[in-house]
Amino acid sequence: MDEETKVIYGGCTGPDAEFIKLVSSDGHEICIKVKYTIVSKTIKEILQTRRILGRDQESVLKFENIPSHLLVKVCQYFTFKTYYTSKHFKSIPRFVIEENIMGDLLRVASLLHC
Questions:
Q1: Does 104 have pLDDT greater than 80?
Q2: pLDDT-based confidence at residue 88 (cuts at 50, 70, 90)
Q3: At what angle do helices 68-86 and 102-112 cross, to 10 degrees?
Q4: Under a CB-based contact definition with an 8 Å cutoff, are residues 22 and 64 in contact?
Q5: Name one GO cellular component term (predicted).
Q6: In angstroms, how far apart are the furthest CA atoms of the chain?
Q7: Which stretches of the chain are assigned E, i.e. beta strand?
Q8: Residue 77 exposed, middle or buried by CB count within 10 Å (0-12, 13-18, 19+)
Q9: Rounded to an integer, what distance in angstroms lies between the CA atom of residue 11 and that of residue 33?
Q10: By the 8 A CB rule, do 30 and 22 touch?
Q11: Which tens digits make up the pLDDT trace of 3-32?
């Protein structure tokens, strides 16, 4: 395949981007598929607003109140929830949350409406 016909999949740019970049309060960046993030009503509404406004820019959401260790756990939950609700399972395993972050994670879940 020559350079003129190079096909690019995914990406974080444009209203139809496959991925979104989430940036934590301590500057860590996490790229995750948009279809996983719609578990969060807050993120879903932000993405719908951007699509309506037709913003053709990189899809980046910065969370000034969420440190990276919590944002990683939230992304794990997004993926877990999407996977187990998209297929038929006889039983769904328990999503494990460490006790030392439960309170902070509950605050984040409330902020993101998930």
A1: yes
A2: confident
A3: 70
A4: no
A5: nucleus
A6: 53
A7: 19-23, 29-33, 60-62
A8: buried
A9: 9
A10: yes
A11: 565 555 677 877 678 899 999 999 999 999
Contact 62, 30 (CB under 8 A): no
Beta-carbon neighbour count of residue 74 at 10 Å?
Answer: 25
| 78 torsion bin: left (phi>0), alpha (psi -120 to 50), beta (else) | alpha
Tokens of 68: 């990276």
- Find tokens 């969420």 and name the residue: 66
Structure-block tokens of residue 29: 């960046």
Q: Which residue has the tokens 């794990």?
A: 76
Joined together, the tokens standing for residue 18 give 């496959």
C-alpha pair distances (Å), 90 with each of 37, 87, 93, 94: 24, 10, 10, 13
